[in-house]
Amino acid sequence: MINDWTSFLPQEDKARRKQDVHLHSLAWPLMMDVVKDRLSKLEVKEPDYAKASWAYEQAHDNGKNQAYRDILNLLTSVTKE
C-alpha cells in the first residue's frame, strides 16, 4: 500500500485506515474507469502565445492532468494488493 493513505495519521489510526481502504476498494476499479475517461478527454491544445494568459492556462491544464494521474496512482496502489 502506498504510504500516502496513512502517512499523515497517528500510529493508532493507521490499522483502521488500512481496513477502511480495503473495505471500499471494490468500487475503485469503476472509479478508475471514470478517471481514465476524463483524463483521455482532456483537450490537448497548442498554446496561444498571443494571449497574455497562455502560461496560466497551460499551468491549469497541466495541474488537471497531474491531479487525475495522482488519483489513478492512489487507486492503483490499492487494487494491486
Molecular structure report:
The chain has 81 residues and is an all-alpha fold. It has a domain at 28-81. It is built from 3 helices and no strands. The protein is elongated, with a radius of gyration of 17 Å. The model has no long low-confidence stretch (mean pLDDT 87).
- The whole-angstrom Rg is 17 Å
State the major sheet: none
| Helix percentage | 55-70%
- Average pLDDT works out at 87
Poorly predicted ranges? none
Taken in chain order, the helices and strands follow as HHH
* Total beta strands: 0
**Structural class from helices and strands?**
mainly alpha
Separate helix tally: 3
What is the general shape?
elongated
Measure the end-to-end span: 7 Å
Q: Could you name the key traits of this structure?
A:
single chain; 81 residues; mainly alpha; 3 helices; 65% helix; 0% strand
Short description:
This protein is mainly α and 81 residues long. Helices cover 65% and strands 0% of the residues. The N and C termini lie close together (7 Å).
Summarize the topology:
Blueprint: H1 11-24, H2 28-40, H3 54-79
